[in-house]
Amino acid sequence: MDPEDVEWRSYFSEEELDEVRNEAVPVVAELPEAIIRYLEKYQNSMSLDDIRNLHIQRNCRPRTEPDLHWVKRQARQLRVVLTAIDIRFATEAFEFGTVEAGKETDTTNTKTIFESGFKTPKIMKDMYMKLYKQSPASVRQLKTFGFTLSE
What we know:
alpha+beta
């Protein structure tokens, strides 16, 4: 969230925006090795059938493999929709993440700068505002994510 964006002033007080400005960036924990290995199996999947078959093949036991069981359960509930924004992550009721992908490795080209510096943050903000409108009381718990991939 960019606290300098004037749009936020209609939703947050100056004190709240200062809190956002001064908040430390959260530390994201590393995924357990078992989950990384599980997700890596999907890396070379070229079709939805490949992904579905991999998903069906792997059985996870809730008691002995709770992390993998959770990942599989979430994957069932998640739908990934290819759109004009490359990839959007959503459930039936909520959109909460976006990915922009490109073939360029040059981080200074116009497409990469536009997608990572403007398009992705704008989409994340739009998703956040939609989530906020669906649940105004949850404004401090709402989270969206987005990232840009390039070769």
